[in-house]
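Posting here for the record, re: zinc ion.
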Amino acid sequence: MTQKDLKQIGQNILKEFEITNIPIKYKDVQRGRSTRRSIIIPKWSALERGEAYSLYYVLHEVSHQVLRHVSKVPIKMHGKEFKDMEGKLLARYDLVPIYMKAYVKELYNSKLKKTVYKKEKRK
Ligand SMILES: [Zn+2]
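Prediction output follows.
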């Protein structure tokens, strides 16, 4: 999947939730963010850790945007509602998140029945 494909996936999900004014941009940044104006995704996330992870990163930031849009009350940044939303979007691609705090340490593919991403241990 190219950055273009990944952006398209993200934009299509936003559209489903009637969010049409938030562009998704790949930039040379360390961390992604989802603001009231745009979604920024780090370029490295689409290059370094394989397809499952690059898709996860987009769905993570898109989940922030969708929740901001649909929830009436402020919600905890990486709380239960967030993980439910993210989990639902990942499930569309047969991905099951295994969390370490806010982010995944592993992604499991329920169809292939195997781990498709595993965070490397730092040396
Ligand atoms: Zn986040």
